[in-house]
Amino acid sequence: MAGLDDVFGDLFASVDAVVLFSPSGSYYEQVMAVDDLDIVVVGTENDVGAETFVELPLEFADITDRIRFGLEGALEQGVVEDGDDLACATSVFSDEIDTVSRVRADAETQTGIYDLFVKSRADPEVVKAVLEVAIELGKKGQKGKPVGALFVVGDAGKVMNKSRPLSYNPFEKSHVHVGDPIVNVMLKEFSRLDGAFIISDAGKIVSAYRYLEPSAEGIDIPKGLGARHMSGAAITRDTNSISIVLSESDGLVRAFKAGELILEVDPEAY
To answer: Across residues 187-195, what is the average pLDDT?
Structure first.
């Protein structure tokens, strides 16, 4: 009769590395005792003192997001290589590691999400909340119709100085923050109107309906992208911000930092 090793052995056979997500010290030592095994630790802190470590900016509750982000970071840092077969061990049902998935590292599927978080000075939870609003807008649109939107996150004071109002700012006297479900509904509703949302590092919505006025000289964006993407890219060169842009024409979500495209993702595939 076949044993469990016969049934699940292929999960571990011939892997190029084991990726441990936030392991306990005892679990890490147990895996380290295995001969000829490359180990990568991924987490918000390197509590086990691992030699090879990839930092997570926040704890991703969703296991797919956690593994996706960790592997993009590992590829970005060069600690795993394109095509590597990896055994990813993480916790799902408890505080201890209890789940193992076999994943192949694929550089062609890199979205740039690791760069989006690592290169932003804003609170990672704020970046995540804004990205999720843009993703949901890309999936559902505004009343079933495609919509474009531009969110500028971080360095809000300087961004405000390099922009002007297009209309009354509905957030002028409020103290609302992204991430609140009610506020997210407001963002989706206001997205149908022109202009950018300006959001602080801490997530406060500073303004809507802003016309960005940075110089576009020297900004190089992919062909086919319009004024919304150009201004979104340019403002990140002139300020310490990131911009997250939803395209009305192709439905993709893109992010810019330091004037360069760092993320491109299809909301339907996210």
So the answer is: 81
Distance CA 120, CA 113 (A): 11
3-class secondary structure for the chain? CCCHHHHHHHHHCCCCEEEEECCCHHHHHHHHCCCCCCEEEEECCCCCCCCCEEECCCCCCCHHHHHHHHHHHHHHHCCCCCCCEEEEEECCCCCCCCEEEEEECCHHHCCCHHHHHHCCCCCHHHHHHHHHHHHHHHHHCECCECCCEEEEECCHHHHHHCEEECCCCCCCCCCCECCCHHHHHHHHHHCCCCCEEEECCCCEEEEEEEEECCCCCCCCCCCCCCHHHHHHHHHHHHCCCEEEEECCCCCCEEEEECCEEEEEECHHHC
| pLDDT per residue as tens digits for the range 19-75 | 999 999 999 999 999 888 899 999 999 999 999 999 998 888 889 989 999 999 999
What's at 247, amino acid-wise? S
Alpha carbon distance 209, 98 (integer Å): 47
**Mean pLDDT for the stretch of residues 262-266:** 91
Q: Of 111, 134, 161, which residue constitutes the final position of a domain? A: 111
Boundaries of domain holding 53:
4-111
pTM, two decimals, is: 0.84
Do 243 and 184 share a structural domain? yes
Given a cut of 60, whether residue 1 has pLDDT beyond it is: no
